[in-house]
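Predict structure. Chain length: 396.
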Amino acid sequence: MNKKSKLETQLMHYAEERGAYHGAIVPPIFQNSLFAFKDWEAIDEAFDDRVNHYIYSRGKNPTVKMVEEKIALMAGGERAQLFPSGMAAITASCLHFLSPNDHVIAIKNLYGPASSLLKNYLAKKMNIETTFVSGECIEDFEAAIQENTKLIYLESPSTAVFSLQDISAVAKLAKSRGIKTMIDNTWATPIFQKPLEMGIDLEIHSFTKYLGGHSDLVGGVVIGNQVEVDDIFHHEYELLGAKTAPMEAWLLLRSLRTLSMRIEKHQANGMAVAKFLEKHSKISSIQYPGLKSFPQYELGQKQMKGYTGLMSFKLKTDAIEEIKSFVNGLKIFQIGVSWGGHESLVYAPAISYLKELDEKQFKNMGISLGDIRISVGLEHVEDLINDLEVALGHIK
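Prediction complete.
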């Protein structure tokens, strides 16, 4: 397969050596734990280069490798490493870059468990300090740099409020100070945003979301240059036993074949729903980078090629019973914590954040009781808008 082929063609065919699988149009699942060798010399050679040889499926597996090669190509990276969850990928990447007593700069609207990893677990276990910044201007990062700053952690668009960071500017600043960078690019996917091409060191995805797209997978992936990701393989990946099972990799392979088409449909539906909510009398504000009214719209246009279907909006009420009535009044939008699948979902951040954060921390996140997050799926957009219209009728 020619690497110059269009992305849709690459996702269908790249890294699939069908001649080795009797011409099977769908590659087999290598559901085996180990690989046998013809002689002493062969296995001895394999142990000298574990990254490129199949020995034991906690390390390399042909089904997993096939998917990793597709994702690396799609993101513009030299190498990708699958993990059994997005948090496993995040944790491995943080441990790869950090040592005891280091300092991290992260955006304050980071994915909740990732934020907890930094400010609780790594702070306690490794005395790592994290400075959380809004990240909406480059001066936030510059002012936070310390002598022991080793990592800047981005998530653009960010969790809950979907604020953006100037990815190229942050990467340039970090490189000038010898600081490593990583970004959670799950929202945009490599279809709509390519942080590695903007100078970021590691790109992280939860493939539970759009890459998997069918709500039947949990997993993560780290993408970067050969040296960084190989080092993660030898240390954090192998030593922590954070392997992706062949079955999950095979299902992800299936999902990648339709990713381009699915993501375009998520964008079309998402934009239509966002424009409907933007004009609705029961909505006080909406956070969606694809709208021209979004404060950072121009930055989004600069660094993204498109927009997906995850957004949030604020109801014109903080009355918890009315908010519950709205959520319970939805019939097509199902109540659930994840996003990025084929189905439309609704979630009120207050449900979990009030259990995890005190009142001050909750307000500092920039969210309120009336904030609602929706993941716009692949249903007919008129049905989705009608569903929202009926449920909004529960707000006085």
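Summary: The radius of gyration is 22 Å.
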